[in-house]
């Protein structure tokens, strides 16, 4: 693959560690009192050498001399003092006269010269006589004197790598250097692989001793966080990988940079097998084990990442004593890790390598033995384990029943992803006609259970597709109950997506297939149909169908279903006063809680939030959306419909009300394994904040276009970001192209005159009006026609708006007035049908008031910024200053740098003597500013505050904007001057 598997030359995700390392060594400080030696540890491939390379460059730039020596794996024949021979050789090449002088004064140093070493038969052994002790002491003193002398010419950093392979003599010399102080600036870094230090490794004791020495610090290099792994993948593979490939690599690499590079190199091939080079490196660890330990490890690899002791004891074929010895050896050699009665591989990829190394027949046999042990109860285990082993042992009938049982267990404990996986595997097994014919269960119920799990996992489009596949296997004249059940479930899944197929038609087909006496199934089908009718605004039909469903549900004591129907019927009161709707929904919430109807509860709470949101009563909207999220989270269904929508709508409410830092935290899905569409929805809101703060988001916004057809909400928000980005590039044609693209798409999946079209039209008209003064006369006339067309389209939307509630809320009124005001401004700027100045000002004053009513903090500031420019241009300097000050205050609080720049450009300056707002930092920003002032990196701050480095970066940018600082150091200085920091 082009552009793939190129090792990264950029340090990723190690800013905090590099800062800590440089600070400990004194590389970043002129204060000798801060200087310490460092013992650096980390697993093989985690990035120790890469970090040391970066440290070297940093030290050299700071005027340090850096020399390195490496320990090599010679088994039991390690050459004593090998890394120091390498150090001496490098110094001799760079400073021959100095080395010659020190060697003359300390003859013992000559023993370390490369190619001239005196290699006596016992040179690697412990000293056995007094003369050896003297020679050894002389040698240690000679090395110390050499480093001290070199440091006289400038600071010296000595790096000794791979100390896990060091001989005893090298370890003793390091102990001497760590414990004997230097007069000059000399620091030593000794690195080793922590996963190579088994319990009996001689370096283990030595490291413990070193870290007790004053002036020696220990730094453990942890695996990279997932976000940094993604960044590393993008650097290595600039051509990009698919989402599946990327997330697979993130999961398998476990933060190990070497694993990442190897897995990226293998990406795009037909299977997920390990690259041969990586497998070879991993399997070297098995060579250190004896036969019994190797056997135990090979059997454990078949179990997966973890295996219980009892299960391993049954399958391994080893007696208790030999098994214990084997496992102890595997644990000591850091192949396995023990805990909670289970064993797991130190690295998951090591388990994969061992498993891949088994013969095909050996794998099948071992899987069969595991399945038998689980099935007959000889060892404890789960249905999921049994399903896996039975399937890989080719016992597919047993795998089918175990998969269904595993799906039921996962669904019962709130594990929709796991339930979806197991149910889907069961359906795959039933694709075989013979097995489907032998199956004694109800395939339609299994299919509906699978679709429900997939929907609850946040992937309703996939659920609809799954049901379509299952329906294709049932003859049109087959069991009507089975077809009706699956059709209703499919309609339900389609209803919460942007489908090509009409969900109402599908649900009507489901109803038509069932007789009146179909009992509970008919009640369920009618409940779905009523819900969809309500969503289409056919309230009278929805009420009739819903009442029929409720009657059947209550007659059959289907309490959870009854709660679901009551929630639907409560929502029908939208056509009346808002108080009636809210009262009905509150009752629906109470009933749902009492009956345990989680989905009905989430839906009722979400609808309640939307009611308050529609009336711009944001505090209550926030409360109800949060409760919807909390209900979903408590049930283990964070991505289920109405639970996730609560989170999405809450992020929008927080954006509108100016709580942008919370928006960034709420929309950060790092480590959450979010469904792609859900992640795209949250990213689209995140883009609004980033755009308004002046970040370049065009590429991110365009990347979301692939989700437009799946979710119109993504299209609305990401198109807004694209519009703003195009406007900043001074390209009104590009602005119009974005508007036409999004309107055409949403017109296809919704309807042509959707209400959000007014917001898009107003944003587009404003972007064009901003550019009018820089256009030619012909261009002005042409683009004014476009603005007039946008106004006409906005009025058409208003005329065709047909909400049964008859409510055209604060948001709609504000954006409609904004579109009208932007049109008047465009006419005024072109001089074509120009409005009187007082009419223009009145229109913008009206827009200002309507955005006050809506409570949209940023758009209100944007309106005031434009109004300030108009007032200044019409000679009302006092009015311009008053409005501009309000806009500036809001922009400062938000960190909206583009608005601040625009205010400055139109000549709206702060009141004389003002140093700008000094009290606009949020609590989180103040906390981060304090850490910035301490010199902490974004990575360090993120780890301390448990947020991503990306979020920290946004906070820092916001802080710089608010303080008017060009950099972090200046921000800290300004903050101290204003009393924001001690």
The outline comes out as flat
Average pLDDT: 87
Sequence stretches where pLDDT stays below 50 over 5 or more residues: 1-8, 117-134, 911-919
Specify the structural class: mainly alpha
Tell me the distance between the termini.
54 Å
Main sheet properties: 5 strands, parallel
CATH first level of the domain at 36-222: Alpha Beta
CATH architect. name of the domain at 36-222: 3-Layer(aba) Sandwich
Report the strand count: 8
Oligomer designation: single chain
User: How are the strands ordered across the major sheet?
Assistant: 2-3-4-1-5
Describe this structure in words.
By secondary structure, the protein is mainly alpha-helical. Among the domains are: 36-222, Rossmann fold (3-Layer(aba) Sandwich); 923-977, Arc Repressor Mutant, subunit A (Orthogonal Bundle), CATH 1.10.10. Helix content is 65%, strand content 4%. It has 47 helices and eight strands. It has a five-stranded parallel β-sheet, with helices on both faces. A three-stranded antiparallel β-sheet has the order 6-8-7. Helix 6 links the parallel strand 3 (156-161) and strand 4 (186-193). Helix 12 crosses helix 15 (348-356), helix 31 (643-656) runs antiparallel to helix 32 and helix 44 (923-933) packs across helix 46. The relative contact order is 0.04. Residues 1-8, 117-134 and 911-919 have low confidence and may be disordered.
């Amino acid at each position: 693959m082009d552009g793939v598997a190129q090792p990264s030359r950029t340090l990723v995700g190690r800013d905090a560690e590099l800062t800590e390392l440089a600070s400990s060594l004194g590389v970043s400080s002129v204060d000798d009192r801060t200087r310490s030696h460092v013992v650096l540890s980390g697993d093989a491939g985690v990035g120790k050498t890469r970090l040391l390379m970066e440290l070297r460059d940093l030290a050299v730039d700071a005027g340090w001399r850096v020399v390195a020596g490496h320990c090599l794996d010679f088994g039991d024949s390690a050459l004593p003092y090998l890394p120091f021979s390498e150090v001496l050789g490098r110094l001799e090449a760079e400073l021959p006269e100095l080395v010659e002088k020190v060697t003359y004064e300390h003859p013992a140093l000559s023993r370390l010269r490369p190619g001239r070493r005196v290699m006596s038969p016992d040179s690697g052994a412990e000293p056995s006589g007094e003369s050896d002790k003297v020679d050894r002491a002389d040698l240690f003193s000679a090395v110390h004197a050499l480093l001290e002398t070199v440091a006289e010419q400038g600071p010296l950093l000595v790096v000794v790598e791979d100390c896990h392979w060091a001989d005893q003599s090298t370890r003793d010399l390091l102990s001497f250097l760590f414990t004997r102080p230097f007069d000059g600036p000399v620091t030593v870094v000794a690195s080793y692989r922590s996963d190579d230090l088994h319990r009996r490794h001689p370096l283990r004791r030595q490291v413990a001793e070193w870290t007790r020495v004053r002036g020696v610090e220990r730094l453990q290099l942890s695996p990279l966080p997932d976000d940094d792994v993604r960044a590393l993948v993008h650097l290595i593979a600039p051509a990009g990988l698919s989402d599946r490939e990327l997330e697979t690599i993130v999961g398998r690499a476990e933060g190990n940079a070497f694993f990442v590079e190897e897995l990226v190199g293998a990406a795009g091939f037909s299977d997920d097998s390990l690259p041969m080079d990586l497998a070879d490196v991993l399997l070297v660890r098995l060579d250190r084990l004896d036969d019994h330990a190797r056997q135990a490890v090979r059997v454990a690899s078949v179990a997966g990442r973890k295996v219980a002791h009892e299960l391993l004891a049954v399958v391994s074929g080893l007696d208790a004593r030999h098994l214990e010895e084997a496992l102890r050896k595997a644990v000591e050699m850091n192949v396995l890790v023990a805990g909670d009665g289970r064993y797991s591989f130190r690295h998951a990829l090591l388990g994969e390598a061992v498993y891949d190394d088994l013969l095909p027949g050996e794998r099948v046999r071992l899987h069969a033995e595991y399945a038998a042990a689980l099935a007959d109860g000889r060892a404890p285990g789960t249905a999921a384990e049994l399903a896996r082993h039975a399937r890989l042992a080719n016992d597919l009938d047993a795998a089918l029943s175990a998969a269904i049982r595993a799906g039921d267990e996962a669904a019962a404990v709130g594990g929709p992803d796991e339930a979806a996986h197991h149910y889907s595997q069961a359906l795959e097994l039933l694709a075989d006609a013979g097995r489907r014919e032998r199956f004694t269960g109800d395939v339609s119920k299994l299919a509906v259970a699978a679709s429900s799990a997939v929907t609850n996992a946040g992937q309703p489009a996939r659920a609809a597709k799954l049901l379509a596949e299952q329906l294709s296997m049932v003859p049109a004249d087959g069991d009507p109950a089975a077809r009706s059940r699956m059709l209703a479930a499919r309609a339900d899944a389609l209803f919460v997506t942007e489908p090509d197929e009409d969900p109402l038609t599908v649900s009507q087909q489901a109803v038509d297939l069932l007789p009146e006496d179909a009992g509970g199934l008919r009640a369920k089908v009618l409940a779905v149909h009523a819900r969809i009718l309500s969503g289409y605004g056919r309230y009278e039909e929805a009420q009739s169908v819903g009442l029929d469903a409720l009657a059947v549900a209550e007659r059959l004591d289907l309490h959870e279903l009854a709660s679901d129907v009551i929630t639907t019927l409560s929502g029908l009161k939208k056509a009346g006063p808002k108080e009636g709707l809210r009262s009905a929904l509150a009752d629906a919430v109470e009933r749902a809680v009492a009956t345990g109807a989680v989905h009905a509860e989430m839906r009722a709470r979400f609808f309640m939030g939307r009611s308050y949101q529609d009336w711009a009563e944001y505090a209550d909207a926030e409360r109800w959306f949060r409760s919807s999220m909390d209900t979903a989270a408590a049930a283990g269904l964070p991505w289920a419909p109405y639970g996730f929508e609560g989170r999405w709508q809450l992020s929008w409410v927080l954006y509108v009300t100016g709580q942008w830092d919370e928006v960034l935290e709420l929309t950060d899905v790092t480590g959450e394994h979010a469904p792609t569409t859900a992640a795209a929805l949250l990213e689209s809101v995140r883009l609004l904040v980033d755009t308004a703060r002046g970040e370049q988001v065009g590429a991110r916004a365009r990347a979301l276009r692939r989700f437009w057809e799946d979710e119109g909400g993504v299209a609305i928000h990401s198109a807004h970001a694209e519009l703003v980005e195009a406007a900043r590039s001074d390209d009104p044609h590009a602005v119009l192209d974005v508007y036409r693209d999004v309107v055409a798409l949403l017109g296809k999946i919704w309807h042509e005159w959707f209400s959000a079209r007014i917001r898009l039209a107003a944003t587009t008209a404003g972007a064009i009006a901003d550019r009018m003064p820089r256009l030619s006369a012909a261009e002005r006339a042409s683009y004014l026609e476009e603005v007039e067309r946008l106004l006409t389209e906005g009025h058409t939307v208003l005329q065709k708006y047909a909400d049964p509630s008859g409510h055209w809320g604060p948001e709609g009124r504000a954006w409609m007035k904004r579109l009208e005001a932007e049109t008047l401004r465009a006419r005024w700027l072109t001089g074509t049908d120009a409005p009187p100045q007082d009419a223009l000002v009145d229109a913008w004053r009206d827009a200002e008031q309507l955005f006050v009513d809506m409570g949209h903090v940023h758009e209100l500031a944007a309106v005031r910024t434009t109004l300030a420019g108009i007032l200044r241009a019409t000679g009302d300097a006092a009015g311009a200053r008053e409005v501009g000050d309000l806009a500036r205050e809001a922009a400062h609080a938000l960190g909206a740098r583009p608005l601040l720049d625009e205010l400055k450009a139109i000549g709206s300056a702060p009141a004389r003597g003002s140093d700008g707002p000094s009290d606009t930092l949020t609590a989180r920003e103040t906390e981060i500013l304090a850490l910035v002032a301490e010199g902490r990196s974004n990575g360090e701050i993120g780890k301390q505050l448990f947020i991503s480095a990306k979020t920290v970066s946004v906070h820092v940018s916001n802080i710089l904007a608010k303080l008017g600082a060009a950099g972090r150091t200046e921000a800290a200085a300004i903050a101290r001057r204003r009393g924001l920091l001690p």
